[in-house]
Write a structure and sequence with these properties.
homotetramer, alpha/beta, Rossmann fold, 2 domains, 7-stranded mixed β-sheet
Chain lengths: ~280, ~280, ~280, ~280
């Protein structure tokens, strides 16, 4: 089985030499190595996919002992992530994830789909995925989220995917899953934050619409961006036409973001991402 | 010589029938006809390019008499527009315009280039275009703009093109040239309004940069959008790299916008454009 | 119910005047009118979507009597097309069509899926669509196609969609359904005609891959092109990576082509298409 | 001054460790390191940009002694390349190169422009670049090329750039400058090889046009591809409109290719390129 080594630390001379020598001495075969130094912060990021057998925990210690003190080193096996998918009433992102999952192309296993509506049950159950209806009406946000948490804790997912989930999660909820909740926003962030972005876009008379996949943080639509996609539109597009055109790129933006996440290709740094795609 | 007929009015049944019959009865040959009905406002827009000879002012009366009362009808000969180009220190949009002008590809004639710096004089004078330096220092905005107005009034341009002109024009100035000043803004509007959009984009960690050509109105960067272009970027782009990449699309967005404008293809309606490209 | 009026004929002065007057006199409301004159052949194409009630067959006669003698006039109600979908072993285009169909977004009704393999049965039957296995082994092409024809004739489809169907249809078969069979080819035609285009593309070291949806004619991969899409690739893509990336655009190219076809937006003229998108 | 280290050799375990240790021991600072292993051929490619002072020829020996026997190691200073630009009658690629050169953005110094026509003299001489007219009429190809060679040898350029040069160079000529002649072809290669690609594209009814920058080899339009760009077109584009639209992407494709070449970012391997962009 391949493994992925992720390192981030302050930059200094010789880091690649030290890391690659350690991998070599452990008799491992580097399949792919990518690194980036952020010059503004003088910070080093590296992702290395390797093949071969060694004592991983010992190698991790070897690496840590040579790297700057605050270095963060993780080694993950290349295996499927456990995920929970959230949806409301729109199907296009959810459908795409279900189909990719069904044909084994998602690098993930969907533990269940959570929705505050029943609309998607028929589709989800076709694929023998558990559909978990959690209504939001007549509940406080805390009650609503506690019910979600109960399901989430049972499945202990690596990631939660908001595939057009139309409820805003509270900071309390979000803080439990840092850099583990991925949302698709139907605009080219940071333009058109908030509700009804296609209506906003239509009224502004824009000529390109966008979609943005991002990690969810406390600030609505302000989390680290993973992928963005755009489509040309023109005056002949109604707000509804923009919405339809936008769905095509929402699907693609989210699919790419999930692929990056599930292959351990993303570093989150402040409000940004470093992605070794 | 071809002519362009532009009509906009409230929509009602039979408009195209009336207009096309009138053209036919005037023995004109329709080369290209495009129309659009904005359903939200129930408004009709039409651009028709025709060939042939007739009494244009009589035909205009014929059209007006059959159309709804508030109809706006204009007939322009397809000929080069007179323009003034404004620049500051960056050359990429200005160069592009100068080159297209030199090879007769611009559908316009540059009467002069106005700049608040001397940096571009060398380039502009190579092409035998008048370079008009109007410094902004130690002047009120009103004084500065009055000097510009004096030059503008002398040339009476159809359009003024802000090709990376880094001064904000006052509402007083702008109001004299409604829908006749075209600006290139170095972001994907409405994201990153104002100064230093690439720095803003860099700090937000976006994955796509944009450029927007628009008509200038009283509200900074809020005028009707003509064209937008985008480019993919990633974490390896510094704010400066984004700026360089952005220049390529600024040039293209502005060039397309100018082509639309100079061929009478744009209707401005409220804060939007209808473009028959 | 809206209707779509399609006209193509030799160009002459006053065509739009005549047609739009006829619509007006029949008290119909034009929702969308697009026309194109191909200058090389001096041929006129028009698509007009209208609302309102009239005697359609009488109006068709009125139009025909005023148009050049060889004019082709058709009036179709805007309703769902009946289609048969063909697949082999790959799911991505088929999945997309099934999902859009399930949610009523396809403007078509899938009468059945025909495949020369059993691989897609599970997926298709989830959506309660008839799966019709017709193996090609140990049969002549004529026998194989006769079995397909028997199914096709039963359903009498408006269109047949080859959603990664890996068998080449004979001229005899194709000639029965002129401009009614739509194929998705996994390359940027006319580059990489024939088998294994991603392998060809990989070996040529190209930097952009493509996908092409087209009508099927006697000549393999040479029929009129409807839509094309491209994606950037680079040296790090294996032939297999190109194939995976290509699937995303194959899906989009086919989906757009089907939308154009099912909304009666395509004229086929010689080996080209005029599309009023 | 920064330097660029380029290595290509058969792949084996520990290459990055050896190379990065050598750089570290020479007290050099790695600014950017990118590597690629081509799995089909089991070949290793690396580009490393570094800062710092050392005995470069000694370091090259140190590297060579540790690498597989057939390893190719080069170390170039990051400095401007000397180039000769070839043009015929079209200006758009040439203009772009001249402008970038004038503003110091090209990473190259144009030694002269060679053309078989006089059309571009006016433009070129505006920028104080030597214009070298070498007519092709009434000469054998050998005579024509010998005159070009005489000029080329005088300037000894790093690269020759065919910026819409409409003469085909002989294998004899090309073989003198392996991987040093860059051409822009006005189609999406390998589609539409040879003359009049836009006419070919128009007649085929394609929906996307392309442009391809590539190294020139013995086989016309068959050399290693560096960059490709595409633009959407539709039925309303005449062959001439396609040509105009194509010029915009030809310019961009060539500009990017030149940037890659002049920054030593390209490996040519067989008929392909590995580009560390």
């Amino acid at each position: 089985m391949n493994h992925v080594l992720l390192i981030n630390c302050g930059d200094e001379k010789g880091l690649i030499a030290k890391i690659s020598r350690t991998l070599f001495e452990n008799n491992l075969n580097v399949m792919e190595l990518k690194e980036h130094v952020d010059e503004a912060s003088n910070h080093f990021y590296m992702r290395c996919e390797f093949k071969g057998q060694t004592d991983l925990s010992r190698m991790k210690d070897q690496l840590t002992s040579q790297l700057p003190r605050e270095a963060k080193v993780t080694i993950n096996p290349r295996k499927k992530k456990d995920i929970i998918v959230f949806a409301t009433k729109e199907h296009h992102c959810l459908s795409d994830i279900l189909i990719r999952n069904y044909f084994g192309e998602l690098n993930a296993e969907i533990k269940c789909v959570i929705s505050n509506h029943e609309d998607m049950r028929g589709l989800v159950e076709k694929f023998d995925i558990q559909y978990c209806y959690i209504g939001h009406e007549n509940k406080t946000k805390e009650q609503f989220e506690n019910e979600i948490l109960a399901v989430a804790e049972k499945h202990d997912p690596d990631y939660m995917v908001l595939a057009k989930f139309m409820r805003i999660l509270s900071p309390r909820f979000v803080s439990k899953f840092p850099s583990r909740i991925i949302n698709i926003h139907h605009s080219f962030l940071p333009a058109f934050i908030g509700a009804n972005p296609y209506k906003q876009a239509f009224e502004r008379g824009i000529k390109i619409i966008g979609a943005t996949a991002h990690f969810v943080t406390d600030n609505l639509d302000e989390g680290p961006i993973i992928t963005q996609k755009t489509n040309q539109v023109d005056h002949s597009f109604s707000a509804d036409d923009m919405k339809h055109s936008g769905r095509e790129i929402e699907r693609v933006a989210l699919a790419e973001a999930l692929q990056h996440a599930f292959e351990d290709r993303i570093f989150v740094t402040g409000n940004k991402t470093v992605i070794f795609g």
